[in-house]
């Protein structure tokens, strides 16, 4: 039988079956999380007139929502580590709905900040992270495709929500629209219901190992110890540990793994991405104003964004398929760095586009680059840290990225206001992204070499310890293999504790 | 006041600067008034292009000097903004052509019509101008013919609203063809789509005139087929008009009831006339969005229930299959086991 999959999981991810339903659920969840803050901008004009505020005060609603969605990452990770994806997403969906429904009855802009920005934003945070996490639990061999498909939810939802919001606004005004949007956001609960828990209790591999253990028991009938899949290893990997032998640091690390900051791959990813996000979103925000600045009419300028969304929609699953191919998958980090640099190059060339045709071409390439980067955003992180630690990793990454994401458009805006010309903003974004791409490329080259070296060293030590039947569990980035920890009969003290542990394991449900 | 300052020499510049300084200072004393008149006379020739705005002349304390200024502007009438608008007609058989001319303030305009006719048409062409379909006889009309192109020019001094309207040049020989210029004040755009609000809520209706700043705004509401002025001073807790900026007007309606479901007009008053924009208000009750809300919430609950039920059903099936397999296993093991082996129940696993 094939050995259990890597990435610290003690079971083989199904790579299909119910996994596709999970992908669909993640599609909806991720779509709402990314598209909702942008789509809500349609109501701003009316709300601005209603409350008599300036546009920048209203735009804070979107910013607060985005900040809470990203900033709530660690809390989301902790909750998923504790309760699993499904309850968190359902709770997040309820929170979004409640936030929007209460926003329909707001009487001041501050209340809007709280209801739409904080409450709904936090609900979206509880949607985004678990959706990405559970894909890593259901897929391994086809994970890039699953990621690409799930991330395609963002442009699809944006293209659907924008006209829908306009329709709701025309017929129900902004209060009625918020009320109905609250109900629409409850659909995130449906997505959450699809996130069937998967973990040790449900996998066939464990049965196999137990059968093996049973066989060895038969061979050594006088041995009172039980050779089972050591509960310690298994429970370590699924997170339901015996808490007596852990100190508080390790206990906290169970919920949010701060030891990731010592992980080389994680640090490379973090620095590269933080740099990239400085220039990632600003061009989208300023594309339509730039087009109008060049003298293009409003509808054609809006059409540019539609072109971008359509190309984005197609690019994400295709990138997933390409990233899954056997040539790209082992070196997926290079592909990611390439797509970031490609994006940056597009921005650098944008000032050369002077007419509408030029801008259309730019939009097409921008959509392509944007889709490529987004499709692989979480896949590369999973690839670097492994699916078990991914839960904490994604939380830590999002809260750090939160700052640069929020800084990007205002910096771009300041550049435009200072120089009166859009091209400096594009040059800044392009330069930052090319720099980020190059950094990631070089550092990942170094990382791959170090990993290869460590692998060779490990194999060497294995050879020497082979006769002792000591094999350690390890992970290999990109390679699919691992071993199990087995304890030998005579070397182990009476395994009464472990028996208890195993019984608990067996009878309880260890769900992730 | 904007001086052109384009004339050569520092003399004129110094005069302009001293005039500006006097404007800024308090010009109450008669002494200063005299000085400004002198300077006005001297600088008349160098001031070529300026517009007179109503509120500029209302600064208190400079009454005397503004009156002088007014007199000067009357004499300098030929120095107001001038513009030319032309239409070309291609032969007698073409369709009537129309052009909209937007006039914000008094100006001198020249309307030019030219007709290109083929050589087969008869030689005599009668050219007339009509205002609102009434024939105009004026010394400001010139008629030319160069080869086969007949052109006519009508110079107008637009000073008040009576001069606004439709001016048409008519070319008549065997057939008749005409071109019309619509002289009008800047149009105000209302909202194409109605504004939605709820009973008990408040709403803000906005009208804008971005390029041209009106002198005043007046709001009307429809009452049956009439239009009644909205009196915000009479009902201050119902209507509030906000005029923070001169080119945007906002009507805030409080404590909305079903009776407020009607059309509202914002009227911008210009020097040469008025123009209206329409904004219609639609009032809904809270029941209206409740129905879609309940429908969607019901859909969510049903879907979640279906998913959970399906999951329980498939788990049961799986458990049955597992139980059967494990039962076989136990039988097999029991037959081979001796004492000292662990209780087989620990090998049962509940999924």
User: Approximately how much helix is present in the residues of chain A?
Assistant: over 70%
Alpha carbon gap, first and last residue of chain A? 24 Å
Any low-confidence stretches of chain B, pLDDT <50, length ≥5?
1-7, 15-77
Radius of gyration of chain A: 25 Å
Largest interface: A-B, 40 and 40 residues
| C-alpha geometry of chain A | globular
Protein name (chain A): Monocarboxylate transporter 2-like
Subcellular location (chain A): Basolateral cell membrane
Membrane topology (chain A): Multi-pass membrane protein
Keywords (chain A): Cell membrane, Membrane, Symport, Transmembrane, Transmembrane helix, Transport
Secondary-structure map:
The complex is a heterodimer of chains A (512) and B (351).
Chain A: H1 18-39, H2 44-51, H3 55-71, H4 73-83, H5 85-103, H6 109-138, H7 143-151, H8 153-185, H9 187-193, H10 204-219, H11 231-238, H12 248-255, H13 264-277, H14 282-293, H15 298-324, H16 332-349, H17 356-385, H18 387-419, H19 423-465, H20 496-507
Chain B: H1 10-24, H2 30-43, H3 63-75, E1 82-90, E2 97-102, E3 107-116, E4 126-131, E5 134-136, E6 141-146, E7 149-158, E8 165-172, E9 176-184, E10 195-198, E11 203-208, E12 216-223, E13 226-229, E14 239-242, E15 248-253, E16 263-270, E17 273-284, H4 287-336
Parallel strand pairs in B: 1-3, 2-9, 10-17
Antiparallel strand pairs in B: 3-7, 4-5, 4-8, 6-7, 8-9, 11-15, 12-13, 12-16, 14-15, 16-17
Keywords (chain A): Cell membrane, Membrane, Symport, Transmembrane, Transmembrane helix, Transport
GO molecular function, one term (chain A): symporter activity
Region (Disordered) (chain A): 459-512
């Amino acid at each position: 039988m094939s050995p259990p999959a890597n990435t610290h999981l003690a079971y083989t991810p199904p790579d299909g079956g119910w996994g596709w339903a999970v992908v669909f659920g993640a599609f909806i969840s991720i779509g709402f999380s990314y598209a909702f803050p942008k789509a809500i901008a349609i109501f701003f004009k009316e709300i601005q007139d209603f409350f008599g505020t300036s546009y920048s005060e209203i735009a804070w609603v979107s910013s607060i929502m985005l900040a809470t969605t990203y900033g709530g990452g660690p809390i989301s990770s902790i909750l998923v580590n504790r309760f699993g994806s499904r309850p968190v997403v359902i709770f997040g969906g309820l929170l979004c709905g409640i936030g929007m429904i209460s926003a329909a009855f707001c009487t001041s802009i501050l209340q809007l900040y709280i209801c739409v920005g904080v409450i709904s934003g936090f609900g979206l945070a509880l949607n985004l992270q678990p959706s990405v996490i559970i894909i890593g639990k259901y897929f391994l061999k086809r994970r890039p495709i699953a990621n690409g498909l799930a991330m395609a939810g963002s442009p699809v939802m944006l293209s659907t929500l924008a006209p829908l919001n306009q329709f709701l606004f025309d017929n129900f005004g902004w209060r009625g629209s918020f009320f109905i949007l609250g109900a629409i956001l409850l659909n995130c609960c449906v997505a959450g219901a699809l996130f069937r828990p998967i973990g040790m209790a449900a996998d066939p591999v464990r049965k196999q190992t137990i059968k093996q253990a049973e066989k060895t028991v038969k061979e050594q009938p006088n041995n009172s110890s039980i050779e089972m899949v050591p509960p310690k290893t298994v429970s370590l990997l699924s997170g339901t540990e015996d808490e007596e032998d852990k100190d508080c640091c390790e206990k906290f690390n169970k919920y949010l793994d701060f030891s990731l900051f010592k992980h080389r791959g994680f640090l490379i990813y973090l620095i590269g991405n933080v740099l990239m996000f400085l220039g990632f979103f600003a061009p989208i925000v300023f594309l339509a104003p730039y087009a109008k600045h060049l003298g293009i009419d409003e509808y054609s300028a809006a059409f540019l964004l539609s072109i971008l969304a359509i190309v984005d929609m197609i690019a994400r699953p295709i990138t997933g398929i390409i990233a899954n191919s056997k040539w790209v998958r082992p070196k997926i980090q290079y592909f990611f760095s390439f797509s970031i640099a490609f994006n940056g190059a597009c921005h650098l060339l944008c000032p050369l586009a002077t007419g509408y045709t030029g801008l259309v071409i730019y939009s097409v390439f921008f959509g392509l680059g944007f889709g490529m980067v987004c499709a692989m955003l979480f896949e590369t992180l999973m690839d670097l840290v492994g699916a078990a630690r991914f839960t904490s990793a994604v939380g830590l990454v999002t809260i750090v990225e939160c700052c640069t994401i929020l800084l990007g458009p205002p910096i771009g805006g300041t550049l435009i206001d200072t120089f009166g010309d859009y091209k400096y903003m594009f040059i800044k974004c392009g330069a930052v992204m090319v720099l980020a791409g190059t950094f990631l490329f070089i550092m990942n080259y170094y990382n791959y070499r170090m990993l290869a070296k460590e692998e060779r060293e490990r194999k060497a030590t294995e050879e020497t310890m082979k006769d002792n039947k000591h094999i350690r569990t390890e992970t290999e980035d990109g390679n699919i293999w691992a071993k199990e920890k087995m304890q030998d009969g005579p070397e182990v003290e009476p395994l009464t504790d472990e028996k208890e542990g195993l019984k608990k394991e067996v009878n309880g449900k260890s769900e992730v | 006041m904007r001086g052109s300052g384009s004339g050569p020499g520092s003399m004129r510049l110094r005069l302009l600067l001293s005039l500006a300084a006097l404007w800024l200072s308090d010009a109450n004393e008669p002494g200063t008034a005299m000085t400004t008149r002198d300077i006005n006379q001297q600088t008349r020739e160098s001031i070529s292009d300026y517009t007179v705005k109503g509120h500029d002349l209302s600064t208190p304390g400079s009454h005397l000097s503004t009156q002088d200024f007014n007199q000067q502007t009357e004499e300098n009438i030929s120095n107001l903004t001038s513009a030319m608008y032309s239409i070309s007609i291609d032969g007698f058989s073409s369709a009537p052509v129309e052009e909209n001319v937007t006039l914000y303030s008094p100006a001198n305009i020249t309307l030019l019509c030219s007709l290109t006719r083929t050589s087969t048409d008869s030689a005599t062409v009668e050219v007339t101008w009509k205002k609102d379909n009434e024939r105009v006889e004026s010394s400001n009309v010139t008629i030319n013919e160069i080869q086969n192109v007949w052109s006519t020019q009508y110079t107008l001094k637009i000073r008040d609203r009576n001069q606004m309207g439709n001016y048409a040049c008519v070319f008549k020989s065997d057939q008749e063809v005409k071109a019309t210029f619509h002289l009008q004040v800047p149009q105000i755009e209302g909202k194409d789509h109605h504004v939605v609000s709820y009973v008990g809520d408040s709403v803000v209706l906005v009208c804008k005139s971005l390029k041209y700043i009106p002198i005043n705004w007046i709001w009307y509401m429809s009452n049956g087929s009439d239009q009644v002025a909205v009196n915000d001073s009479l009902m201050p807790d119902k209507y509030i008009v906000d005029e923070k900026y001169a080119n945007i007007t906002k009507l805030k309606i409080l404590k909305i009831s079903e009776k407020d479901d009607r059309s509202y007009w914002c009227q911008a008053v210009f020097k040469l006339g008025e123009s209206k924009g329409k904004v219609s208000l639609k009032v809904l009750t809270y029941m209206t969005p409740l129905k879609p809300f309940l429908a969607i919430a019901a859909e969510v609950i049903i879907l979640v229930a279906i998913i959970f039920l399906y999951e329980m059903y498939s788990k049961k099936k799986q458990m049955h299959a597992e139980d059967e397999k494990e039962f076989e296993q136990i039988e097999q093991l029991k037959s081979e086991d001796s004492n000292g082996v662990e209780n087989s129940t620990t090998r049962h696993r509940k999924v």
